[in-house]
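Reopening: C-alpha cells for the manganese (II) ion complex, inputs below.
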Amino acid sequence: MTVLRSGSATDVGRVRGSNQDLHLVTDDLFAVADGMGGHAGGEVAARDAVEALQRAFRSDPSLEGLRHAVAAANTAVWNHSQQSSELRGMGTTLTALALVPDENGQDVLALANVGDSRAYLYTDGGVTQLTADHSLAEEKVRHGELTEAEAAVHPHRHILTRALGISPDVEVDVWTLRLRTGDRVLLCSDGLSNEVSIEGIAQVLASVHDPNEAAQALVAAANEHGGSDNITAVVVDVMAGGLEDAPATVAAGYDAAEAVEMARPARRRPPSPGEPVGDDGPSGSRLGEGAAPLSGGGGGTATALDVRPATAPPDVSPADIGQEGPPPPAVAGPAGERLSRRQRRRRAGIAPWFTVRVALFLLLLVGVVAAGYGFIHWYATDNWFVTVDGDHLVIYQGRPGGLLWFDPKLVDRTPVTTSEVLSIHLSDLHADVEETSLRAAKAYVDNLHQEYLDQQQVNQAPTVPSTTVPATTVPAVPTTVPPG
Ligand code: MN
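Re-run output (same inputs, fresh job):
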C-alpha cells in the first residue's frame, strides 16, 4: 500500500495583482493549474479545470481515467468560455498527478500534462524534469531549431502551443511513474520554474524534508529571484509502498529516467536496467495515441511508445542531473515577464493582439470605404440643376449626367413652362443650370419667370400710359378777382 504525504504553497508573486494559479491536493490526486485570460478569465479557467478534473477522476480513478479527466477539464473550460464574451479565449495549463493501480493492480503514479506547468522527479538526490513544456520555444528545442540555452531566453518561451480550454479537443501527455519510497514529485507553475534553476529546486528538495516546508521554501526562492509571476508548488512524497526491492543506487540501474515511462497500451513490462531511452519528447509520439485504449491488447506500438520526457537524460546520475535540466533562466524582470504573459494570453486567446489588430485594420478599412462612399455620395447629390423636360422647367438633384452609380433625381416639376421664360435663357436651360441648393434652384426658376412677367409688362407699357393715365389737367378753378 502506497502512502503519500504532500504539501503545497502558492503565492501571487511580487508583480502580479492576482493569483491565477490554482492547485489541488487530496489523498490521491494532485494538480497545478495556471490560468490565463483577461479579467477573471484565468481564475475561472483554472477553477473550471481543477473542479472538472476532480469530478471526472472520482468517477474513474485509473490511469486512463486521469487522461479522460484532463480531457473533461478541457471540455469544461472550453464550454464555459463559449458562454460569455468576457471569458472567451481563457485557458489554463494543467499538470496532474494521481495514485492509481496499474494493469497488475500495483500502485503507480500517473502524470498528465497540458501546457507549461511542470512536474519534476526528485530521486537519489537528483532532479529530473518529467514533463515537456508545450511552449513554442520548447517545441523548437525538440525540433533542433533552438538549444536549451537559447530557449531559456527566447522571447517566445512562454507562448503555449497547448493549453486547456482553447479548443474543443486537447492532446494530453500521460506518463506512469513507478516510484520508490523516498522519491518526491514536484508539480509547479512556471512562476517557479522560470525563477529557480533546476539546481536550486534540487537543493531545496534535498534539504527540506517536510513537503509543506519544501513547497514554501520553493515559493520563497522564486520570490527572491523576482517573483514576476504567480508561484505554485505541490510536493508529493512517497512515504511507503514504493519499489522496496529496487536497487538503491543509480549504478544498479534504477534512475530517474528509467522510472518514467509513457502510459501506453503496449508498455506493460517494467523498465529494465540499461535499456536505451528514447530521446523523443512526448510531442514525438502524439500521432493517434490519444485514442488508443490503455487497457487494450499490447503489441505493435512499442516503437512509438518508447518515449521519454525530453529532458530525461539517458544515463542520468545524481551528480549531473543538475546540468541536464534546462539552464537556469535569466531572472526575468517585471517588464519582460509582463510581456511574456501577454504573449501567453495571445496564445491562449488565439492571438488576441492579432485579432485586435485585424479588427482595428478592418474597422479602419470599413471607415475609409464608408468615408469614401460618403464623400462620393455627398458630392454626387449635394447639387441641383434646372433643366427642361418637355414644356416644363424641372429641378433635378444630382450632377448633370449623373456621377458613378448616382443618377440625378427629379425633385420638382415646376408649373413654369418654356414659353413663360425669356427665350434667351432656353439654351442655358437645355444645357442644365446648376445651383448649390434646391432653394437656389427654385429661386432661379422664379426669377426667370418673374423676369418674363416683367418683360411682358414692359412690352405693354407704351400703350398703357396713353390709355390708362389721364393727361394731367388743371381743373379750372374759378378765380376771384379781388375788387380792385
Ligand atoms: Mn504562470
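Residues 34, 189-191, 229-230 surround manganese (II) ion (CB under 6 Å). The CA atoms of residues 112 and 174 lie 4 Å apart. Marking as resolved unless the reporter disagrees.
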